[in-house]
Design a protein that fits this description.
There is one protein chain. The chain has 206 residues and is mainly beta. The chain is built from 3 helices and 14 strands. Strands 1, 2, 3, 4, 5, 6, 7, 8, 9, 10, 11, 12, 13 and 14 form a 14-stranded antiparallel β-sheet that branches. It is globular, with a radius of gyration of 21 Å.
Length: 206
């Protein structure tokens, strides 16, 4: 009987996902205040990209990354606005700057403030705990704004990044007093233990 109970306990331990063993967020989020960061073609002739570093506390699969985009439908300094049909790119990078995944979306609105979502579910990004960078940039000579929290360094685990050459970078870290980009990173659970059949469990302890 004692041996049987030991096996039951062993099975229970193996089937418990890591999410139950560790306290990990199911969303990483920073909300903007009144800050509006330039995105896209600038009057000075450069193409602004926006990014943010963040820290994953546990191993997980990143499914979606979101940024809050602001469209006013106006031409600024001769540069037309982003709108319906325009393409934006989102990337996930290692802390070293190496891109590990890129996705794109087509805008379906012309004015307003909305969270735009880059879907990385098909990339199967099983990421370990640590620092990563997420970025957003345009694919045309147009402009918009991205929401950011400008009043303070609200997110101590990460910093805002800026590119003056779109996705080509380089992505330069901004000073903490320049705020944090509004973002959401949504993980899908956490990397589970490998499943074992009853026969495999018994074989492990013979």
């Amino acid at each position: 009987m004692q041996g049987w109970r030991s096996y039951l306990l062993l099975i229970a331990m193996i089937t418990i996902p890591l999410s139950a063993l560790a306290s990990c967020p199911d969303r990483y989020e920073v909300l903007g205040d009144e800050g509006k960061a330039w995105l896209g073609m600038n009057a000075g002739g450069f193409i602004a990209g926006e990014g943010q570093s963040f820290y994953l506390e546990c191993a997980c699969q990143v499914v979606t990354v979101q940024f809050e985009l602001i469209l006013d439908g106006l031409t600024w300094y001769g540069v037309p606005p982003l709108g319906s049909g325009d393409i934006l790119f989102g990337e996930i990078k290692l802390a070293t700057g190496l891109t590990i995944a890129t996705q794109s979306i087509v805008l379906d609105f012309d004015e307003g403030r909305r969270w735009i979502t880059f879907d990385f579910s098909t990339d199967n990004l099983d990421l370990g705990a640590g620092e990563y960078i997420i970025t957003c940039y345009v694919a045309s000579a147009k402009q918009a704004r991205m929401s950011y929290h400008q009043a303070e360094d609200i997110y101590a685990e990460g910093i805002r990044y800026i590119s003056s050459n779109g996705g080509a970078g380089p992505w330069t870290p901004a000073a903490p007093e320049n705020g944090d980009l509004a973002f959401r990173v949504n993980p899908l659970g956490y990397v589970p233990n490998a499943a074992h059949s009853w026969g495999q469990v018994k074989a492990l302890y013979r």
